[in-house]
């Protein structure tokens, strides 16, 4: 509050105080906002209150259809509230882009006593949060093993995202978008018989999955054994895993894995290819025939 004492026309003093113009720090585009300014104490009753727009060129925009506020833009609403010795004037308006950066002035005027008190608001900052589309998967993939995503932003202001502005978020379920695809695992390819002392290759083909990352494990279950044991490269076994390559459909991957038995000697054993993928709750297993 700023207090004043003004001389009346008959030499007596009029004491009063006028507040600053108060309102929100930010205004949302198209959403009603209200500013207010108050006077206290013995300011004369027959006072006129005017609201005026002051643009950056320091000019007042004189257009209004409100009799209480001849200098406010069209569409404004001016109301008053009285409580004992306090009179508060409210200016309600819907901000537009043209209001960004302007100041609003509230004037308390009493012509007979030659009183004019002005209070000017800080610059009005108009903001519009962007309308954000859902995440879209673009049809053209370049490079073809990378999925391009896109969102569209509409009706935001200003162009730059200011500090303190809350972020807008969107989520996309890869499964719902049809991007996640489980692998199709072939049966284990193996020779019809195993010649003692000669190397043997078992292979398994994995196709149709997305994304391309897989976990592939080879296991061995000996004759009469209930539990399979994970195999590792050794003098007896060697595992080979091809790199996943994009399939012809451009939306899935394919690859092959091989188990090489360098020194086959056990009869009745079984070999298992176990494939894990993020689309699977439990891994897929393929088991070789017994020799």
UniProtKB/TrEMBL annotation:
The keyword Cytoplasm does not apply. Keywords: Immunoglobulin domain. Coiled coil: none annotated. It holds the Pfam family C1-set. Residues 30-121, 183-289 form the Ig-like domain. Signal peptide: none annotated. PANTHER family: TAPASIN. This is Ig-like domain-containing protein. It comes from Alligator mississippiensis (American alligator).
């Amino acid at each position: 509050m700023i207090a004043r004492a003004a001389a009346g026309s008959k030499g007596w003093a009029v004491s009063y105080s006028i507040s600053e113009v108060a309102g929100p720090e930010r205004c949302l585009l198209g959403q009603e906002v209200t500013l207010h300014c108050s006077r206290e104490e013995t300011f004369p009753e027959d006072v006129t209150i005017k609201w005026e727009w002051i643009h950056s060129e320091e000019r007042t925009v004189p257009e209004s259809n409100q009799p209480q506020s001849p200098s406010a833009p069209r569409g404004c609403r001016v109301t008053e509230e009285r409580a004992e010795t306090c009179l508060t004037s409210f200016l309600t308006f819907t901000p537009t882009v043209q209001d960004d950066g302007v100041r609003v002035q509230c004037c308390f005027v009493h012509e007979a006593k030659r009183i004019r008190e002005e209070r000017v608001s800080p610059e009005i900052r108009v903001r519009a949060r962007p309308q954000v589309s859902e995440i879209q998967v673009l049809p053209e993939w370049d490079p073809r093993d990378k999925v391009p995503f896109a969102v569209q932003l509409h009706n935001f202001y200003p162009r730059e995202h200011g500090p303190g502005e809350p972020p807008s978020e969107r989520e996309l379920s890869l499964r719902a978008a049809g991007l996640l695809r489980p692998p199709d695992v072939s049966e284990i390819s193996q020779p019809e018989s195993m010649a003692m002392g000669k190397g043997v290759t078992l292979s398994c083909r994995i196709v149709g999955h997305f994304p391309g990352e897989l976990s592939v494990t080879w296991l061995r279950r000996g004759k009469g054994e209930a539990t399979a044991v994970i195999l590792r490269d050794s003098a007896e076994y060697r595992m080979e895993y091809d790199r996943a390559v994009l399939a012809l459909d451009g939306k899935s991957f394919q690859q092959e894995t091989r188990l090489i038995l360098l020194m086959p000697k056990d009869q009745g054993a079984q070999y298992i290819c176990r494939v894990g993928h993020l689309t699977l709750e439990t891994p897929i297993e393929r088991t070789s025939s017994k020799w």
